Amino acid sequence: MQAEQLPSKKQEAPERRVIGVTGGIGSGKSRASSFLAQEYNLPLINLDIVCRDLLQPDNAGWQALRKLLPDVYFSPTGELDRAYFRQQLFADTSLREQVDATLHPLARQEMVQKIELLTGLVLVEIPLLFEAGWQDDVDCTLVIYADMAARIQRIIDRDQVSREQAQQAIATQQCLREKAAHADYVIDNSGSWQHTCALLHHWLTTILDEK
91-127: b or e for each residue (b if 16 or more CB lie within 10 Å)? Predict the structure, then answer.
């Protein structure tokens, strides 16, 4: 008599570990995230890109801002005037709080849905990770730190702005030292990029050994 075939056990999904990468303007968080993703073939979710997609005409973020903001923020074709929008956010704390309250829930929902599709080690670059209170959405946090002088010079070189404008941009964000104090891991990107890459490699090796 043929033996009864037992049902196969359900294959368990590979473990997922989500690392929230953050920092401040000019600290190099995007460069560090991209380096880790490309060098070690890791999936990367970038919240700036998520928000950019949400703000495309007729998408959920765009629809929410269309109700919140006057027509001056939009072009005749309906697209958000991103340069003007960004300028006003830097200048108006009340507006920034309203926009954050409007867009953060939408961005968080998109982020969580994207994370659920991935397995293994997952990088999520979240500029406002601590400000938005999303620490519980990731397994650990990594702050890319840089001293004030390095950040100011990078912003000047990248955005072609004055030193005063660079300082104003930094002043709109949470103190980077405070972020570092709350992080699980900190990488200092104040020096050369080559040195930072070595630190990132050592850090990632440590992370993989902890799995």
Answer: eeeeeeeebeeebbebbbebbeeebeebeebbbbbbb
pLDDT in tens, 35-62: 999 999 999 999 999 999 999 999 999 9
Cα–Cα distances in Å, from 171 out to 24, 73, 91, 168, 203? 10, 24, 11, 5, 29
Distance CA 159, CA 163 (A): 11
| 106-138: pLDDT as tens digits | 999 999 999 999 999 999 999 999 999 999 999
Instruction: Annotate 163-178 with DSSP letters as a single string.
Output: HHHHHHHHHTS--HHH
Residue/partner pairs of 93-97 with CB below 8 Å, 24 or more apart: 96/172
Rounded CA gap, 189 and 186, in Å? Answer: 9
pTM: 0.87
Classify strands 140-145 and 185-188 as parallel, antiparallel or unpaired.
parallel
Question: 7-14 long-range CB contacts below 8 Å, 24 or more apart?
Answer: 13/119, 14/119, 14/120
Of 155, 127, 116, the residue nearest 23 (C-alpha): 127
Which pLDDT value is given to residue 143? 98
Structure token pair of residue 68: 């919140």
Q: What is the pLDDT of residues 147-157, one digit of tens each?
A: 999 999 999 99
- Please determine, for residue 13, whether its predicted confidence score (pLDDT) is greater than 70: no
Query: How far apart are alpha carbons 28 and 158 in whole angstroms?
Result: 11
